[in-house]
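queue> holo job accepted (zinc ion)
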Amino acid sequence: MRDGFEEVVAEPARPKLTYPFEAGPRTGEAIDVAPGVKWLRMPLGGSLAFINVWAIEDAGGWAIVDTGMGGPDTRQAWRAAFEGPLAGRTVSRVFVTHMHPDHIGMAGWMTRKFDCRLWISRLEFLMCRSLAADTGREAPADALSFYRAAGWDEEALEHYRARFGGFGRALHALPDSFQRLSDGDGVRIGAHVWKVVVGSGHSPEHACLWCPELKVLISGDQVLPKISSNVSVFPTEPEGDPLTDWITSLARIKGQVPDEVLVLPAHNDPFFGLHARIDHLIGGHERGLARLRALLAEPKRAVDVFGVLFRRKIDENLLGMATGESLAHLNCLMARGQAVRHRDENGVDWYRAGA
Ligand SMILES: [Zn+2]
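queue> job finished
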């Protein structure tokens, strides 16, 4: 599962954000980004290359925030960190912003290794358990008809069948219990209180951690400086409207968290410019919705609209994410009363502008 599309061309130009650190930490190293807050990186395959994770000085050891993709490369990187910059203290607890494998992958390994608790929102925990339970199953009929309705051909459906059920392979088994994070909670970690700020749309109940005293926001995938996070409709909830959730929750975060914070994102580098970045992300989706609505003057399938939403060629590896994100835009237009859908005799959905 990918976290989103790297922005290739920004239109209008991406706002100028400030990056206070010249370079990120190498594997096994850490950089202090705020008093008692360390920045580490865990390796990822693919175009994103790494994920940022954070270690916060806690009363009984390190509170770790996000854990990296499950697997030997990440385990090796954590071992190097525990023998290097994190040496001498145990892990007190493990926070996870959301259930994607690059964030939660090592959480079960770490909570067992240090006999500590996983702190996560309830929906992220349950959704992760639910998806992990699909591991090894055959692709369900609901999912195949969902992608057929989006316009996939037999070859694409076969590719999906062949790859289905891999989610759980990218993570260590989760613990059987957790400590719930809820929007608005204040959690004391060491010397400071961190507020839980929940967003939705990229994942169901994504927890950001904001420390007003330190003026720091750990934003996970909710606000990334150079990537537009993936917002997708999935076969489990075909009528979902995650794009409205996404736009609404970004606006809420802008209203709640001051612009002055240092943003610690899961990908790319820490930056200043939270409000401008949120405005640009929301604006990008609104402009995409407007282009989509204009395109729907003629009826289109989900697979016919990639050109107005993505400025890159969609190959078979990107097809699932592009389809999910196109459906998110189409469902959002329908929720706004600006598009309608009609299913043809082959089970394929056609969308056109209008009410
Ligand atoms: Zn994610």
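queue> The chain has a mean pLDDT of 94.
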